[in-house]
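note to self — DONT lose this again. spent like an hour looking for the file last time. sequence + predicted structure for the chain T wanted, 173 res
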Amino acid sequence: MSNRLGQSGRGTTGLLAALRDEQVRRGYLSPEALMRIAAERRLSPSVVYGVATFYHEFLIGNVRELVIRVCDSPSCHLAGSELLIEQLERLVARLPGPVGGSVDELEHRAPAVRIERVGCLGQCDRSPAVIIGSRLYLKVQSRELPLLLQRALAGGDAAAPAPAQGGDGRGHT
């Protein structure tokens, strides 16, 4: 197949790589970025949007909301994803609520947090898998969640993925 999604080039060739690069750079995919990528690849914006919304790894929209996606496929579920979701819900419930204010004040406050249960992140051999912002964590343990959430809310881990093997050798990417 000469026009694959994961390789570089024009058309759909390299589309996934282009979307990933944009998300790593900004932490999310804006409508403008999707339009630019479509124009660069000579694709319909609906094709690019369809690919970006098909894969759970992509965050489309405003970065003022921290999205946490927890894989709940059978292998992640058996590895404890339900416990992770319950703990995340407890941690998020303890966060300070939204605060009113001017546009400038709202721009600088911590983002809202949304937890999503997703069907599969394609990491069954390293489950349970969790995406916090745009960063994928593998073999997540519940004791890690408070620090991961704290870092993401501070802007530390949500935007820039680490190398394929994290410092602890457990495969955080």
